[in-house]
Design a protein that fits this description.
With about 200 residues, the protein is an alpha+beta fold. The protein is built from four helices and ten strands, in the order βββαβαβββββαβα. The chain has helices at about 40-50, 65-85, 135-145, 160-180, and strands spanning about 5-15, 15-25, 30-35, 55-60, 95-100, 105-110, 115-120, 130, 130-135, 150-160. The strands form three sheets. A four-stranded mixed sheet has the order 1-2-4-3, with helices on one face. Strands 5-6-10-7 form a four-stranded mixed sheet, with helices on one face. The protein has a two-stranded antiparallel ribbon with strand order 8-9.
């Protein structure tokens, strides 16, 4: 599996946004995030740093609507991760992490089988977090999970600070992805599935 290059780049261009994203699964956690939305950049940085994926996301709004920009940045990032995972042979497949951030605790469980399902539980109290509407933050995570092409459950168990809730969610997802995407030497490069394919 070491000879396989687990990298992918995607470009997504619509009348609303222009997005370019690249991911290297076997990276060092190097991140460049330029969406024009500081807190979204912060979440993408946390995701890359703690998954140890190298991530580069550049997103530009063409219609001036922040909702479209945040959604398409998440779709581009998720699509690049999906592509970089390749056929998913020889990986651990399952990952789980519970990550605290001060008073908040988030938990993520992922199965990198290509059978999409996701559940998101991210309670936010304030109408906006760091200048981003709460509904757009929820949509960022929803769009990310929806387009990873895997089974993912992400929930914030508790917390009182919305910044911490959202950031702990990103970090727990990152840690779970890091575990699930890691090579499993015992598999000899075979798909981790009784079906023989992921």
């Amino acid at each position: 599996m070491g000879a396989v290059s687990r990298k992918a780049s995607v470009e997504r261009a619509t009348k609303e946004t222009s997005v370019a994203a690249s991911v290297s699964i076997d990276g060092t956690g190097r991140v460049s995030a330029e969406t024009g939305v500081a807190f979204v950049d912060h979440l993408i940085s946390a995701l890359g740093r703690h998954s140890m994926f190298d991530v580069d996301v550049k997103a530009e709004s063409l219609d001036g609507i922040t909702h479209h920009l945040i959604e398409d940045a998440a779709i581009g990032l998720a699509s690049a991760i999906d592509g970089a995972l390749g056929d998913r042979s020889g990986i651990r497949r399952f990952g789980h992490a519970a990550v605290p951030m001060d008073e908040s605790l988030a938990e993520a469980s992922v199965d990198l089988v290509r059978r999409p399902f996701h559940r998101l539980d991210l309670p936010l109290d304030r109408p906006e977090v760091e200048g981003v509407p709460a509904e757009d933050l929820l949509h960022f995570f929803d769009s990310l999970l929806r387009n990873l092409n895997c089974c993912a459950h992400l929930s914030v168990r508790y917390g009182t600070n919305d910044h911490h809730r959202a950031e702990s969610a990103a970090k727990s997802l990152a840690a779970a992805l890091r575990e699930a995407a890691a090579p499993d030497p015992g598999r000899g490069g075979e798909p981790p599935s009784t079906k023989g394919t992921m």
